[in-house]
Amino acid sequence: MKAIFFKEVNGFLNSLIAYLVISVFLCVTSLVVWFFPETSIIEYGYADASVFFQTVPFIFIFLIPAITMRSFSEERKSGTIELLFTKPLTDWDIIFGKYFAALLLVVIALVPTLIYMFSISRLGNPIGNLDISGITGSYIGLVFLAAVFTAIGIWVSVITKNQIVAFITAAFICFIIFQGFESASGLVSNGVAALWVKQLGLFYHYQSLGKGMIDTRDVVFLFSATGIFLFLTKITLAARKW
What we know:
This protein has 242 residues and is mostly helical. It has 13 helices and no strands. The protein has helices at residues 2-13, 17-35, 41-44, 50-68, 73-78, 81-86, 91-110, 114-123, 132-159, 163-185, 191-199, 202-209, 216-239. The radius of gyration is 19 Å and the shape is globular.
């Protein structure tokens, strides 16, 4: 697994992908948090980080598939996937190596945003007046979301050798699993049933973590969702030996 992981990380660093992804992510979040009049914290008048945490999941929906779309699709298109199968590596070694390399890139993109939190805290009255537990929970939620979205992107990249198709499909699935159930719950008249529908989506659990209370049920759900898509990747990869 280490060999695949470092190979993928070097591949990101030796191309424009890593730098482009991080730059685009920071640029978009900066515009949303500081410059767009509708969302700017400065215009809003309150030192509140909620706009950042509401926006990032939707950026992830497009950003993460852009990272993962080449994971297996490019290997298939170039024919190097066959070389991987000839090496003393298990399917899980290949999957985890590619998965953690892509996830690492997303986490690295998140790290500089801590500067936003510091800046917002300095704008507070009194200075440092921030909901630390809520911010911590939201960051944990973002990492779990990134983990699920990355697993989805990796799985989709196994299915098709066309990177554009992999990108569009993964982005669609990420959106449905994040926002789809939340929207569908509004169509259910029964309150209990509506709550069940909400709980099937990622938005409910992400929002719950953002309240600053780390509920093991939310963690287990997000962890399980990641595991399901990684397992689907394993099944698909095993069934399609090229």
